[in-house]
TrEMBL record:
Stated name of the protein: Universal stress protein A
SUPFAM superfamilies: Adenine nucleotide alpha hydrolases-like
Domain UspA: 2-155, 206-283
Originating organism: Marinomonas profundimaris
Lineage: Bacteria, Pseudomonadati, Pseudomonadota, Gammaproteobacteria, Oceanospirillales
InterPro entries cross-referenced by the UniProt entry: Universal_stress_UspA, UspA
């Protein structure tokens, strides 16, 4: 059975990531896996230390540093286990039925790759443990996860509450059509009113694409309000979100070779950085 993977790092967003993951697990009827990765910056190696001693230093100093590093690694391991235990208790209290804990040494991306075949959705915080809560930045892992993994990503941006509606940022391209298909076939957002929004010129061709996407969603039981609004993507989506009290936004990522362009592009970067609602990125 495929799982919801929650990336837990002990940052201030970990509680919100766990809450979002529990909601997704309930919606999709999937077990929840809490993943914590002990990454390189957390634990230094003996080679790192021996290479930094320099000439003329005493051997006992290296021994002391290695012992100190081993103690640091042990504490990091114990701290990670405590983070997972707390997240598990929180998830179970929130109603998660099947919860698993996984702790890995090494890069988070490598851990996610190892788990990809049994993953249905990845949930991650916009800001990681190395960022402040008010930092205007995208967490260091989000771009790499989207570039490397081929699973949907739910980005938690703050305190999470179960959404009562959602908006799809639609442009008629292949990535957007793929996102529509995935949403239509998934139970994650079923039962929620859908706002399908296209920014720019209202041409017959674009109107036809919008209506086709709307029909696909309605065939699967979604209630859809579709709109084409004049203007540039970011301000149009932002204004629509505010006017209609949208609580979750979904958008498609480009094909593998263009995913970096997706993040470098100013509209999407602004949306991820400045959004105050969760974002669902679909490949």
């Amino acid at each position: 059975m495929t799982n919801i993977i929650a990336c837990i790092d002990g940052s201030g967003l970990s509680e919100y990531v766990t809450t979002a993951s529990v909601w997704a697990a309930k919606q999709m009827g999937c077990p929840l896996t809490l993943l914590h990765s002990l990454e390189k910056q957390t634990v230094r190696t003996d080679e790192d230390l021996s290479g930094s001693i320099g000439f003329g230093s005493r051997e006992h100093l290296l021994d002391e540093l290695v012992a100190l590093d081993a103690q640091r690694a042990k504490l990091a391991l114990e701290h990670g286990k405590l983070i997972l235990e707390n997240a598990r208790a929180y998830a179970q209290k929130a109603g998660a039925k099947l919860v698993e804990e996984i702790q890995r040494h090494g890069d988070l991306i490598d851990a996610l790759i190892d788990l990809e075949d049994e993953t249905r959705l990845i949930v991650i915080g916009r800001l990681g443990i190395n960022h402040t809560m008010d930092a205007h930045t995208v967490g260091s892992h989000i771009e790499r996860v989207a570039r490397t993994l081929h699973k949907p990503i739910l980005i938690s941006v703050g305190q999470f509450k179960a959404p009562k509606n959602f908006m799809i940022a639609y442009d008629g391209r292949e990535a957007a059509d793929n996102a529509i298909a995935r949403i239509a076939q998934s139970p994650l957002l079923i039962g929620l009113p859908c706002h399908l929004v296209m920014a720019g010129e209202d041409t017959p061709a674009r109107r036809a694409k919008l209506e086709e996407a709307q029909a696909m969603l309605e065939e699967e039981g979604f209630e859809v309000a579709a709109s084409i609004l004049p203007g540039k993507i970011y301000p149009v989506l932002t204004q629509y979100r505010e006017d209609h009290n949208i609580e979750l936004m979904a958008m498609g990522a480009y094909a593998h070779s263009k995913v970096r362009q997706f993040f470098v592009g100013s509209n999407t970067t602004k949306m991820i950085i400045e959004s105050d609602i969760p974002l669902l990125i679909l490949r």
